[in-house]
Amino acid sequence: MVKNKSSKTSDSTKTSRGKAAVQKGAKFEDTVADLYRLLGAEVVQNIEICQKKVDILATIRLPGSSTEHRVIVECKDEKKAVAQNQRVMQFKGLLDTARQTGDADSAEIITRVPLSDQAKGFARGSGITLLTYEEKIAQLIDFTPYLKDVVDRFEKGDPRRPAEPPLGAYYVDLSAEHGYGEKTKKIPVIDDYIKQWLEHDGTQQHLAILGEYGTGKTSWCYKLADDLAASYLKTPGSTRIPILFKLREFTKTLKIESLVTSFLDEECGAINPRFKLFQAMNDAGIFLLIFDGFDEMAVRVDVDTLEMNLQEIEKLAASPKSKVILTSRLEYFVSGEEERKALRPKGELLATRETEYKPLRIKPWGDEQVNLFLKKRVPLIEEAEQPWTYYRDRIREIEGLSDLSRRPVLLEMIVKTLPQLIASGKPINRPNLYETYLLGEIKRQKILKRRKLLLSESSRFSLLQHLALDFFVGDISAITFTDALKHIEEIVNPPSSEIEAYTREFLTCSFLMREGDEYQFSHRSIMEYLIAKGLMEEIEKNAPNAFKRGRLEPVVTGFLAELNPNTETLWNWIESTKNGNEEDIKYLGGNTATLLCHMDRAALAGKDLSRTVLIGADLSSRDLRRANFSGGVLSKVDLTHALFYEKDFESAKLLDCRISFFILGDLLRVIEATGMEEFEDFISEIMEQVRDKVKKVCIGEEGGYSVRSDLPYIFGDRVYRGDNIKALKSVMSDVSTLPWVKAVSIYVDEHEKLIASIPEARKFELDMDQIVRNIMRIF
């Protein structure tokens, strides 16, 4: 019988579908075979065993043995499984025969879609492992011991801190916010936000959890890891596996392969700690990667190091199914522009990354969170003789203490030290809180724990200060046992027969934690306090050593200011830099200027600073009017939003400084010129025009803009990083030629002219100091 045209078309369609199905099945088989190869197996595909064709034969050498284990594997890439029990039964027959002939030891069926519970039960009874592809990937590395350890540390206590109660006993939820200005949205409980984010696999945007020091970022990471680990252990596959990386262990440029391999070996005890296995699981969406302490990765960081570290994380974060959380101090990014470029690099010229991070900013605790913490934590403190309400009331009564208590780390110190401070009559500030807390911990070791300590308190804190200052001036954030032994020998000089005993005691009872073979401070803020104490001693002795060799960071500067240093000594130090050798004095003048201006915003105004050398000074938002910098050297100085006249820097030598210049633009003319309807689009176009002009003389540029709906102007702030402030004149001249620009200014005298050009500004009755204090918000 002759087939009609319709029948021929039908047969052709069936043939095409059959070929497509075969090709699809072969591709799935290749994908599964690659998994076994990742496990180190020798793989043969489409092999005949006991006169039956088998998709895969995988031969695996057992660890620590010469014995080989052979697995026959059947691959099923079907949207809907059919004849499940029959297939399992047929495969069981083949397995039984293969075992008798010695051709195979076990069998696995890998499917694309889950099979029924009935089929799974039948497979188990037949000695066959029945897994989906995702379940097989999840078995590449066994994370069960690691997950159990995560839960135990949070709920039962950290073995490395045996004296501390488990974090889970007193943890209090954190709140956060995202967005800026009028678009800011509050997140009452950050965990609720994370849960929703994890459930949406369609988005590739990751999260950056930002917060000032002591706001509880690391504790929150432990809490999140505990929640996910407990859920996964109860029902494997119900959630992602939390992988918590502690980035403080990497003090220079990160290598993601080394980080993962070390984590698998030391934290997980993985039998096969290979990066490619981990990468395959990450590509399948098995993990939530938590990179905690991005700001602690480099002691001396620059924008290139920051970018290289993000590029390394990109190797995992770029995977379409990956989920990544990054935590960092907010102040780690030196400007809003740097933060934006780091977290949202798309659209940047010559961008080397695509991964976007949505920033969530941790908010300080409110009264309700403070009270809940006190209610939970106070009963766990052995020395506490008063109910938690006593501490709450005292915190409210003492000036300045309420603000400190908004940070979880400082609140815990307050709870432990408040009774002692009240009894002593000492002022209650951060330095005294830290001092009392640290001394109290040593006392507790001696009395409550009945430990006989070899080192005196003065020797111990002298060692800790020397160690902290070494971190301050050097490029290290950890020491080895050998390093500590040298410190003990040089500073304490105990009998040679007891040097090792002294060293062991110092490392064990001195707020240090061991990671691998290296010791670090248990909390960064402890190190920063000890740095400030060490620098304060140098000021008191009028002997700058570390003070001139390391660059002051904001937290250390704040500690120092609260210690009330002698300003006469500081002014003498600045004076001593005149005509000095830059290599000898290094950061002496810059650090001194930074500290003086932290204590008094107008400390340098009107002063004779001619011929001084100020390297690395932070003079941002400071009043420098009528200060004489003639013949001086200002290298890597931050002058953003600072207030100064043109003549103040006429003959100063500026090297790689950050200086703001402001652009007043006519919003209406911009719209007319660009013809753009979308606000963000034409703003981006405006900023790109400025970038093109600025690139002519700047080493780098950053900045932003502000627009007021009640004023038809854009007030832009760009940051110039260059070696000659006069070169800005050419930039300003170029920018002024843009059709939408009304005025450009750098100096106070120019600011005044700029403000005078805005008739609408008069209704605000603004004075010059007010403009400088918040020049970006006014317009």
What does this structure look like?
- It is a single chain.
- Strand 10, helix 10 and strand 11 form a beta-alpha-beta unit.
- Helix 5 crosses helix 7.
- The protein has a seven-stranded mixed beta sheet with strand order 7-6-12-8-11-10-9, with helices on both faces.
- It has 779 residues and is α/β, with parallel strands linked by helices.
- It contains 30 helices and 21 strands.
- The C terminus is likely disordered.
- It is globular, with a radius of gyration of 32 Å.
Distance between the termini: 88 Å
Residue share in helix = 40-55%
Low-confidence sequence ranges: 696-713, 761-779
Query: Measured on Cα atoms, how large is the radius of gyration?
Result: 32 Å
Number-wise, the strands total: 21
Tell me, briefly, the overall form. globular
Mean pLDDT: 80
Q: What is the makeup of the main sheet?
A: 7 strands, mixed
SS-derived structural category? alpha/beta
What spatial order of strands do you see in the largest sheet?
7-6-12-8-11-10-9
Tally of individual helices: 30
Tell me the strand percentage band: 15-25%
Give a quick summary of the entry.
This protein is an alpha/beta fold and 779 residues long. Helix content is 46%, strand content 16%. The strands form 5 sheets. It has a 7-stranded mixed beta sheet, sandwiched between helices.
Primary descriptors:
single chain, 779 residues, 5-stranded mixed β-sheet, 30 helices, 21 strands, globular, disordered C terminus
